[in-house]
Amino acid sequence: MHKKIKQLLQEAPGSEVIAKGWVRTKRGNKNVAFIALNDGSTINNIQVVCEVAAFDEELLKQVTTGACLAVKGKLVESIGSGQAVEIQASSIEVLGTADPETYPLQKKGHSMEFLREIAHLRPRTNTFGAVLRIRHAMAFAIHKFFNDKGFVYLHTPLITASDCEGAGEMFQVTTLDPENLPRTEEGKVDYSQDFFGRFTSLTVSGQLEGELGATALGDIYTFGPTFRAENSNTPRHLAEFWMIEPEMAFYDVNDLMDLEEEFIKYLVRYALDNCGDDLAFLNKMIDNELIDRLRSVLDTPFVRITYTEAIDILSASGRKFEFPVSWGVDLQSEHERYLVEQHFGRPVILTDYPKDIKAFYMKQNDDGRTVRGTDVLFPKIGEIIGGSERESSLEKLNARIAELGMDTTNLWWYLDTRRFGTCPHSGFGLGFERLLLFVTGMSNIRDVIPFPRTPKTAEF
Ligand code: 4AD
Ligand code: MG
């Protein structure tokens, strides 16, 4: 049985081994060929050394970049290849050839834009291998963090009849024939004849169902795909992204901020402790300040200020922003990044936003104009987490819903949490890909998810 290259690279020389993987490069002369083989288990290749005379010439010709090989040989001490061991090959089987004329990943240093066009092959590059292994490690660490704290992983539905964020940015789910829509007597589309007997969409957030979980199980979290039909072509927005949404009974907004900070620091520490090789590669090739930035987040407490204080700082900054600031405006990424990168030089948690720029469910402050929402702002990214203490009073929640003119037909079950045994509770949503932008140093969100979904892109 073959072993992973990651494991072979750590073994003592001497044994007979089998390695399987894809050729990254082949070089050498007429006597000896050096093949760099990678199987995705690590950023590091294993070097395979072949005495040319001992192999069929036609076979060695098929050993080109991208070809898939099974190599048998002896693990020997390596002189000068930068790693402890290499394989002295006794036999090579070419499992799959890759025509050098057409295989697109020939030379190194392709642009990120080009690699997006070949998203089916880009996991074979060093950069995407590193990013995808870190993505896996972060997903695992998220489950570990919550499991160790006794949170229950709650699976919330992807198809829903409610719009949690109330922004109307939902993708419709229907089996009706668009060429032949059933109509009501008033001439509207008759969704009672649709698959679910009502109008449905892909979820923008699992929060509302998460709150049902928290008011029964105590502490829950969701971790799954969410969908937003917002036409935002930015390096920080996807139409399909993954979100982690914990929801905690009996947490107030201060407990909430403590958990937000602890959670992100845990994940960053986990990456530093467990993804060293991949981070070292990204630090060298993508962003020279990456590891320093990750360490610096661990060392400093996050700043906690109110939205109103932030507006004062921005107004006093003397900066000319593209979007001018005044109390009541929604903060843009340029404002968020000014606070984090220029003014404070560390992550910032903003609280007490104007109620008119936040969703209906946030706990209302006594001032009548702000709510207990929190956004966590990060260097290079801006908003990485959005969360809040929830409005637990049925009366106040109903008043806010009426004020916003929301349709409550599909929210009766949500309001029951406030009707029966309501409790103070809080929760937040961390955008998984925004976290990965921070942890990997990549600059475009399309490059931290295997198959990005953005406006006009849904290939692969
Ligand atoms: O701030 P948002 O919209 O909050 C919610 O959805 C709440 N229901 C969360 C909660 O309290 N349970 O989104 C939360 C986070 C953002 O801070 C951001 O990191 C990420 O989700 N996010 C996106 N990530 C990628 N592409 C997009 N289009 C995103 N929209 C939000
Ligand atoms: Mg938000």
Note the gap between the termini.
32 Å
Largest sheet: 8 strands, mixed
Bound molecules: 4-amino-1,4-dioxobutan-2-aminium adenosine-5'-monophosphate, magnesium ion
* SS strand fraction: 15-25%
Task: Tell me the strand order in the biggest sheet.
Answer: 6-10-11-16-15-14-13-12
- Global structural class: alpha+beta
Radius of gyration: 27 Å
The level of helicity is 25-40%
According to DSSP, the number of beta strands is 16
pLDDT < 50 runs, ≥5 residues: none
Mean pLDDT: 96
Shape: elongated
Secondary-structure element order, N to C: HEEEHEEHHEEEEHEEHHHEHHEEEHHEH
Total of DSSP H or I helical runs spanning 4+ residues:
13
Could you explain the architecture of this structure?
By secondary structure, the chain is α+β, with helices and mostly antiparallel strands. It has helices at 5-8, 57-61, 112-117, 126-148, 207-217, 253-274, 276-285, 290-299, 307-316, 333-344, 394-404, 412-419, 432-440, and strands at residues 16-28, 32-38, 46-51, 68-77, 85-96, 152-153, 159-160, 172-173, 200-202, 219-227, 240-249, 303-306, 348-354, 370-378, 382-389, 425-431. The strands form three sheets. Strands 6-10-11-16-15-14-13-12 form an eight-stranded mixed β-sheet. Strand 2 (32-38) and strand 3 form a beta hairpin. The two termini are 32 Å apart. The structure holds 4-amino-1,4-dioxobutan-2-aminium adenosine-5'-monophosphate and magnesium ion. Magnesium ion (MG) is lined by residues 375, 383, 386. Magnesium ion binds next to strand 15.
